[in-house]
UniProtKB/TrEMBL annotation:
It comes from Oreochromis niloticus (Nile tilapia). The keyword Membrane applies. The gene is SLC37A1. This is Solute carrier family 37 member 1. It is found in: Membrane. InterPro entries: MFS, MFS_dom, MFS_trans_sf, SLC37A1_2, Sugar_P_transporter. Gene3D superfamilies: MFS general substrate transporter like domains. It catalyses: D-glucose 6-phosphate(in) + phosphate(out) = D-glucose 6-phosphate(out) + phosphate(in). It is a multi-pass membrane protein. Belongs to the major facilitator superfamily. Organophosphate:Pi antiporter (OPA) (TC 2.A.1.4) family. GO terms for molecular function: glucose 6-phosphate:phosphate antiporter activity. The keyword Transport applies. Residues 28-511 form the Major facilitator superfamily (MFS) profile domain.
């Protein structure tokens, strides 16, 4: 075939060979981070099982024992041990909260280190190790039920360790998706892609809820096994950068017929060998010659240039224009989002007078609105080329909407549903845009002069700062709710206004731009 004999196939046009692999990267990274969120959700489902309503259980045990002449041993055991020690004490809320905060604080601290480490290691291997470790610690929490462990320190240790290893996920997947998708439609693509958080939360709730009443240990073990399996899938199939495709033919040509050799697979080129073993579709035919044909190869000498860009330092990443402003803005935006995540079901129960199950189901509408808001923010920012302005407008609208929600939610189910969707879109829209498209833009900022090794560090700095707000929001809400829910909403509105103020300089710069095409401050 003439096409195969020409030297052009060694460097096919990205539009010819990259489309299929770009779709693969999109789907694979979506599933990988879905499994991360899937493994985080069980703790919120199992809390009700760790501390039950002992009075209700006792009444049921008394009724069951009174129907027989002699109470059974299981009834007496249930009467005494209706909750899982040590969460059977009166301060169980503080103990359960300690597990939440231990995970969130470890995640926030570890995120700053994760990006720096990730820039210096192969993303595929770094993400694989993190997923395998996260799966192990998630399963370990569930084994506490199987092996009857009642030591609080054990569960705190597992949460801290899991929070640290899960920091490998976000910088890695954002770096991969940023490598494969350009800035043109990055907002739309990442708005769709970022829905993995809600999908993971929903799947985690369903899986954990299936076993929570019969064997809550399995509520952790099954998600833990899922993320372990996805870690193996990541190792085999993830392609970090489009440039990796250009090296497939060169590396496997040097191996001849031994491309599927076991040592080659486990030396880190398993995914490339797997690609070479696939049927030669139009895409792979451009890259790989047929076995019956031989292409003369010229010797290739790889010389490491002295000017090859090195991984960026922490302070170097902070000096990129816009990183500090967007990081602090995300702190307050994530504070609002995570306050809703932890406290919305309880608020709906009190305000709308619904039971816990209905309130939990209703609270998912906030996530639905968040998906729509994230996609809408991406589309608008792509169209205008103004990321900061898009975030600022949504934050400006979110603050009065939060106050409206606190008022309207007391007037029935219908208004509550509508306000939940609107609040979810306005609150999670800026949050989603900053953690995805903005982070990818800043990690490839023109001030880096082509150095693409800053994306993971920038992403980690932005999300790590946001995670500080994620830990503070629920804590402040718990303290302020004792004085009434109005104080909580005042705190949320204040956080939104502070996030808006932090973006004013960037918004002014965007609006003052007089160039012919829209220019974002993060370009």
């Amino acid at each position: 075939m003439a096409l195969a004999k020409s030297p052009a196939p060694l460097h096919p046009h990205p539009q010819q060979s990259g489309g299929r692999y770009r779709a693969l990267t999109f789907i694979l990274t979506f599933l990988l981070y879905t499994s991360f969120h899937l493994s985080r959700k069980p703790i919120s489902i199992v809390k009700s099982e760790l501390h039950k309503n002992c009075s209700a259980v006792s009444e049921a045990a008394i009724i069951a024992s009174s129907s027989s002449q002699q109470p059974s041993l299981s009834s007496l055991h249930t009467d005494v041990d209706c909750s899982w020690k040590p969460f059977d004490k009166s301060n169980y809320k503080q103990l359960l909260g300690a597990m939440d905060y231990s995970f969130l604080c470890a995640y926030a601290i570890g995120m700053y280190l994760s990006g720096i480490i990730g820039e210096r290691l192969p993303i595929r291997l770094y993400l694989t190790v993190g997923m395998l470790a996260s799966g192990v610690f998630t399963c370990l929490f569930g084994l506490g039920y199987i092996y009857n462990i009642h030591n609080l320190s054990f569960y705190i240790f597992v949460q801290v360790a899991n929070g640290l290893v899960q920091t490998t996920g976000w910088p890695s997947v954002v770096t991969c998706i940023g490598n494969w998708f350009g800035k043109g439609r990055r907002g739309l693509i990442m708005g769709l892609w970022n829905s993995h958080t809600s999908v993971g939360n929903i799947l985690g709730s369903l899986i954990a809820g299936y076993w929570v009443s019969s064997n809550w240990g399995m509520s952790f073990i099954v998600p833990g096994l899922i993320i372990i399996i996805m870690g193996v899938v990541c190792f085999l199939f993830l392609i970090e950068h489009p440039n990796d495709l250009k090296t497939i033919y060169t590396q496997n040509s040097s191996l001849g017929k031994t491309v599927s050799n076991f040592s080659v697979w486990w030396s880190g080129y398993g995914y490339r060998s797997l690609l070479c073993s696939l049927p030669q579709s139009y895409d792979t035919e451009l890259l790989l010659p047929r076995d019956s044909e031989r292409i003369p190869m010229q010797p290739v000498v790889v010389v490491k240039s002295e000017s090859e860009p090195s991984a960026i330092s922490f302070m170097g990443a902070l000096r990129i224009p816009g990183v500090v402003e967007f990081s602090l803005c995300l702190l307050f935006a994530k504070l609002v989002s995570y306050t809703f995540l932890f406290w919305l079901p309880l608020y709906i129960t009190k305000a709308a007078h619904l039971d816990a199950k209905k309130a939990g189901d209703l609270s998912t509408l906030f996530d639905v609105g968040g998906i729509v808001g994230g996609i809408l923010a991406g589309v608008i920012s792509d169209k205008l080329g103004k990321r900061a302005t898009t975030c600022a407008v949504m934050l400006l609208l979110a603050a009065p909407t939060l106050y409206g929600f606190s008022m309207i939610s007391q007037f029935g189910l219908g208004p509550t549903i509508g306000m939940l969707l609107v609040c979810g879109g306005l609150v999670n829209g800026p949050y989603a845009l900053i953690t995805t498209a903005v982070s990818a833009d800043l990690g490839t900022h023109k001030s880096l002069k082509g150095n693409a090794r800053a994306l993971s560090t920038v992403t980690a700095i932005i999300d790590g700062t946001g995670s500080v707000g994620a830990a503070l929001g629920p804590l402040l809400a718990g303290l302020l709710s004792a004085g009434g829910w109005d104080q909580v909403f005042y705190m949320l509105m204040t956080a939104d206004f502070l996030a808006l103020l932090l973006l004013l300089r960037l918004v002014t710069k965007e609006l003052a731009s007089s160039k012919s095409r829209p220019i974002s401050t993060v370009e």
